[in-house]
């Protein structure tokens, strides 16, 4: 019999990841630069996969999976991203970095609890994804590779985007 709090914790993680998908939707819609968009799209896909993987664990434990809705109007994360999106690519990236740091901490915290080895491995993998996302976004926000003259980072990208 599954521990009820185990399901609840998985549920919270999956909900964060579902909110992240919504926040990425907003960020991607506001960023015109192809290489940045492409990368954010791949991060969005990671979060989608996190929701699906966590939902599988939740179902295995007899719980209700988290629904993935495209409309996340209640999400503070999405609201913050939309607001800073009005200020341009750099501000949007800083907002997304804040979100990513939150996910990293949430997974870190989750790892302090007892899990089966399989679930623990999954949570560790997700945390690694979040760190990879955070590292890339922090770097991009600092170096602003989309600004003209910073070609090496943008190699192969269309100019003037
Ligand atoms: Fe995640
Ligand atoms: Fe992430």
From TrEMBL:
Query: Which residues does UniProt call coiled coil?
Result: none
InterPro entries for this protein: DUF2383, Ferritin-like, Ferritin-like_SF
- Gene3D superfamilies per UniProt: 1.20.1260.10
Which Pfam families does the annotation name? DUF2383
Give all residue intervals belonging to the DUF2383 domain: 7-108
> What CDD domains does its record include?
Ferritin_like
Query: Any idea what this protein is called?
Result: Ferritin-like domain-containing protein
């Amino acid at each position: 019999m599954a521990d009820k709090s185990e399901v609840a914790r998985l549920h919270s993680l999956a909900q964060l990841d579902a909110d992240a998908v919504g926040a990425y939707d907003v960020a991607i819609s506001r960023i015109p630069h192809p290489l940045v968009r492409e990368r954010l799209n791949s991060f969005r896909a990671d979060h989608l996969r996190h929701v699906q993987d966590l939902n599988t664990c939740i179902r295995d434990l007899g719980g209700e999976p988290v629904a993935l809705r495209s409309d996340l109007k209640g999400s503070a994360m999405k609201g913050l991203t939309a607001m800073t999106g009005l200020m341009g690519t750099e501000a949007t990236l800083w907002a997304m970095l804040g979100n990513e740091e939150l996910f990293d901490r949430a997974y870190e915290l989750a790892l302090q609890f007892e899990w089966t080895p399989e679930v623990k491995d999954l949570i560790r993998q997700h945390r690694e994804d979040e760190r990879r996302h955070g590292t890339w976004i922090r770097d991009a926000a600092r170096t602003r590779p989309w600004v003209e003259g910073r070609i090496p980072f943008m190699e192969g990208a269309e100019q003037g985007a």
